[in-house]
Structure formats: C-alpha cells, structure tokens
C-alpha cells in the first residue's frame, strides 16, 4: 500500500510488513530499490523533476522522518510508524542472516565498510557478507565486477542521497543483486564514527531534535518542517 504526500509516493507498511515483501522479491528476482522519504526530500522534489521521478519510480519508499507521519495524520492517511533508513538496513541484515542471503556494502571512506561489516557480524552471527568496497574507487566497472563476482542478494550503497540512488539506477541493470538500498551515513553509525540519538529520542521520533541540540546550524533545515506541514494542510483543504 502506498500513500501520496505532496506528489511523492510513500509506503504505509511498518518493518514487519515490509521485510517479507522485500525478501519475496529476492525469490522472484524482481530488482527493487528502497529509498528513504523525509520532508526535506519531498520539498526538494517539488523543484526537481529528476528527483521526483527517482523517488516515485523506486519500488519501496519508506517513511523516514516524523514529518511524513505528521503529514499523513493531517491528510487522514495510513502511515502510522517511521521506517528509518538505518533501521531498515539493520532489519534487512537480520533477516538476511536468518535466510542465508548474502549482502554487500559499497561506499564510505576506506576502511569504514569493513568496520561496518565487522559490526554486522557481531550483531547477526552467521550473516553472509559477500564483500565490501569503499566509495573512493574511480573505476566504476571495477566496482561492478567486484560486486558481481561476490554475487550478493542485497546491496547497500552509502554515498549520500540522491547520489547513491542515482548510482544504483544507472548501474542496476548490469548488477547481480536483487535488493538495493541507499543508506547514507549508516556505515559510519555501524563503524562507531557517528553516534545515533539515544533510544528514548528514537522511539518518539525526535532524533531530529537531538541532532539539532548537537548541531545548532541544522536549524535552517529544521525550520522547513512546519512549512512542509502547512503545505500539506493547504493541499488537503484544496481537494
């Protein structure tokens, strides 16, 4: 099920509903891209037709951001819980370990993907990590060949959005994996280089507030949230 928020499609399911759907696609060999949707991306997509097409053409659009949940409430929609990019990746890795589906980590500074892989092995014993590759390799064909030789079912790409999704879309036709997710700074979180907000903030969808306290310069980005919700309300009342 999907719901439209200011012209962008968003999945309404939670983790437990999404995970089986993702792995079903591995079994049926249906290549699929998972993108994280937040208010910032939705606002940018209004001015950027290429970004709008990228987001809407993805097979899964997860509601990553409390603003998307609030927007759904305003328009009396069905999205009730956040599905964050990093937690989606972790849930996929947990399930991949159970089902013995190999994964590959691509992106980040040299050594970061390796550290992230070590952490995943610690979290999910038995997980099959087919390989890693940092994001500094200039020869794209070399990267493609390395991934294809490893034959993973899931590929996580950490380059920042929308660069990572654009790379996936440009190359997935010649890549072996079935499931693709752009994961931004998730490798840095797993490697211990970046700390997530405490769990109490995560549970109530206030990670953005924690980051704002830590990095006050983010206020310019966060101020867009009330404007986004106002636009959602206007859009609803005009229908």
Automatic annotation (TrEMBL):
Keywords: Cell wall biogenesis/degradation, Glycosyltransferase, Teichoic acid biosynthesis, Transferase
Alphabetical GO biological process terms: cell wall organization; teichoic acid biosynthetic process
Top-rank taxon, per record: Bacteria
Pathway the protein acts in: Cell wall biogenesis; teichoic acid biosynthesis
Ion transport listed as a keyword: no
Broad class of enzyme this protein falls into: transferase
GO MF entries: N-acetylglucosaminyldiphosphoundecaprenol N-acetyl-beta-D-mannosaminyltransferase activity
InterPro entries hit by this protein: TagA_TarA (IPR034714), WecG_TagA_CpsF (IPR004629)
Recorded catalytic activity of this chain's protein: UDP-N-acetyl-alpha-D-mannosamine + N-acetyl-alpha-D-glucosaminyl-di-trans,octa-cis-undecaprenyl diphosphate = N-acetyl-beta-D-mannosaminyl-(1->4)-N-acetyl-alpha-D-glucosaminyl di-trans,octa-cis-undecaprenyl diphosphate + UDP + H(+)
Entry EC number(s): 2.4.1.187
HAMAP family for this protein: TagA_TarA
Described function: Catalyzes the conversion of GlcNAc-PP-undecaprenol into ManNAc-GlcNAc-PP-undecaprenol, the first committed lipid intermediate in the de novo synthesis of teichoic acid.
Similarity comment: family membership: Belongs to the glycosyltransferase 26 family. TagA/TarA subfamily.
Protein name listed in UniProt: N-acetylglucosaminyldiphosphoundecaprenol N-acetyl-beta-D-mannosaminyltransferase
Lineage: Bacteria, Bacillati, Bacillota, Bacilli, Bacillales
């Amino acid at each position: 099920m999907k719901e439209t928020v200011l012209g962008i499609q968003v999945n309404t399911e939670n983790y437990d509903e999404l995970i089986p759907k993702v792995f079903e696609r591995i079994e049926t060999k249906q290549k699929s891209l998972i993108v994280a949707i937040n208010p910032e991306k939705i606002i940018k997509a209004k001015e950027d037709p290429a970004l709008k097409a990228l987001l809407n053409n993805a097979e899964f659009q997860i509601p990553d951001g409390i603003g998307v949940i609030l927007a759904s409430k305003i328009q009396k929609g069905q999205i009730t819980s956040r599905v964050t990019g990093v937690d989606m990746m972790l849930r996929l890795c947990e399930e991949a370990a159970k089902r013995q589906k190999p994964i590959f980590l691509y992106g980040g500074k040299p050594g970061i993907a390796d550290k992230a892989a070590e952490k995943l092995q610690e979290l999910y014993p038995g997980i099959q990590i087919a390989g890693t590759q940092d994001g500094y390799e200039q020869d794209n064909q070399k990267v493609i060949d390395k991934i294809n030789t490893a034959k993973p079912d899931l590929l996580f790409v950490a380059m920042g959005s929308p660069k990572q999704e654009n790379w996936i879309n440009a190359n997935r036709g010649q890549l072996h994996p079935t499931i693709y997710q752009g994961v931004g700074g998730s490798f840095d979180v797993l490697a211990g280089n970046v700390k997530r907000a405490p769990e109490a903030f995560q549970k109530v969808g206030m990670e953005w507030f924690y980051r704002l306290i830590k990095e006050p310069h983010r206020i310019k980005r966060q101020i867009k949230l009330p404007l986004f919700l106002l636009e959602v309300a206007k859009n609803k009342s005009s229908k």
